[in-house]
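seq as requested:
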Amino acid sequence: MSQEPAKITNVLLVDDDVAFVKIVQHHLQKYQDHEFKLVWKDNVEDAIEETKTNTGLDIIITDYQFAGATGLDFCLQLNQLNNQTPIIFITSMRDVKLAIEAMKLGVDDFLVKDDLAESLLPRTILNVLDRVQRHEQLQAVEKRILIAEKQAEAIRQLVVTVCHEFNNPLAAIKISSDLVQRQQLSAEDKSEMKKFEEFFIQIDTEIKRLRDINFEKYEFRKLSTSDDKAES
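struct tokens:
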């Protein structure tokens, strides 16, 4: 029985410390059933260009201090480019304010270099990617719910319009029917009018049922059923 190939995670490392790059390469050697493919850039400018041309990047790991720029500058430029790649900030400083500023710019996790045990970095990468995936799934569900709500509202408005269009002619027919029944009618005519009245009541009842249908509940039940089947 052949084993499935290891999943490859494409990582962009932005750091100008060659010694630390080698540490990261060592930590990201094949981890459990995962394989990490590392792309290294030692400055912000080259890293930005890499993000523009390399559409297969899964995650970015960046240091804070660079010549002429900072990791925060890098994150800000990524935001301006509307780059949604998850980011892990790694610094040699235990700076809470820096961590807060990084998180404000959308950084997904913050690590201190001295704390990097061998398995911490790959586990952090996988945890971040898992959180991002769950967030995207939640957004997709919320989008489908919003679409369902709009569909339900459109159907509701259509039903209101249809019922209104029926009400006026039905009311006129009812008045005419009442006038006819007040006349001197033969037994056969009375029988026909009774059938007509039963038919009229049936139509009126169906219109009221249509008006009172909870389309929103129907749409959400349908959406939930589809999602359950997809997950099973």
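The radius of gyration is 33 Å.
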